Amino acid sequence: MYSIILLVTLSFLISPIEGYGQNQSEVSGLIIPRDNEGMYVRNEAGQFEVNWTAKTKVALVANTRLFRNWKADQLEYGIHSSKEVVSFPIPKGAITGIKISRDGKQLENTLREARDESWLSEHGLKLYFNQRPQHEQLATEDDPRFIGQWNPQDKPRTLSINGEKYEISLKKGGQTKALLYNLLTVKACKPFINRATVLGQRKGDVVIADEIHVQPIGDQVELDDPKLPRYLFIGDSISGNYDKGLRAALAGKFNLHHPPTNCGPAGNGAMNIHHWLGAYEQPRRHWDVVSFNFGHWNAGSDKASYQRDLEVVIAALKKTKAKLIWVTTCPVPNGFEPSGPLDANGKAPRRTSGVMQKYLNPWAAEVMARHPEISICDQWQFVKDNQGGLYTDWWAGKNVHFGGETADALGKFLGEHLERMIKQ
After folding, report:
1. pLDDT tens digits, residue range 321-337?
2. CA 21 from chain center: how many Å?
3. Environment class of residue 63 by beta-carbon count within 10 Å: exposed (0-12), middle (13-18) or buried (19+)?
4. For residues 354 and 333, what is the distance between their CA atoms, to the nearest angstrom?
5. Domain 224-423: which CATH class?
6. Residues 259 and 14: beta-carbon distance below 8 Å
7. In this predicted model, what pLDDT tens digit does every residue of 35-73 receive, in sequence order?
């Protein structure tokens, strides 16, 4: 069994959709159960009622990287930061592909790439399963849609338009998400275990859903040992580096969870913390401990905005009643240029050696001093203290990430800190 959480993908509030009437609205947030006629969507602005109808379309939001190992009969949907994989049956039949391009200069570039390279980017891709295109076309200024038949079996994948095959991929880099229609119904909008965006018409305090875009994040509760406390660790790719070491250090002692994403900068945390925490007031979904870090993605931030976003995150974390741990941001190694002064706008000098010591960590320390109940795990100091030992080569390099023993040691250090804190 898996769960679905509705997380913010486009907006947090009910807001008019640009280019439509005032009654056209978009709302995103955590799905809260209601009845068979609809659901509630909760975000930091409150709880909103959503009704669906027989005409409501439901689309699965999928990173196009999932298409690399395509199977004809099912889509294997790996959950980010989890071992869980959700399988979605693929109906037989033709697949209509619609690639939407922006107008203006981007449309000109896209048409040129289609003409000269027989290639289209997967950005803006919608797929309609078991459905042949009613007509096929290249995009125009009046209608910026490429419409054809999508073939996932071709290597690389193609979009056939009026007898011409165009490679459709991300061969020039990046990543994106596609909308997959005709795979799900409103029954897939289960509470607590997906994220989605609702597009529809606002009637009073209710949104009548025209479309619901659902992105599964898995149901890690199902894998929990109910006898153990629950621990959520929030962070960027560095937390992914030390994931293995942390789990090893706390094996058999805690149920460990990480948001299904790279948590990025503090501003992203301020926007999404409510969704990462989930329905923590529900049975078995509470948090006993939460550790959090934002820093590397804020290396070019100013003090005021960084501290403001941290305060927003902390306010949300305190509502869980969990024990809280701030994890200081690890250093930037000496292979990078030395850190200079703040710029004219008070922004830190981005990813430079010493930027965490001079700016980000002191700024964060000021915030944590206002919240003495938050424990501090000083990973920055741990890496510094071992500069002449385990981290000698790391300090001499030009890569902020950790691997192998250096990563595992960070996880073990955090795990030991957590255990000491719990015993106090």
Report:
1. 999 999 999 999 999 99
2. 30
3. middle
4. 8
5. alpha beta
6. no
7. 999 999 888 788 899 999 999 999 999 999 999 888 889
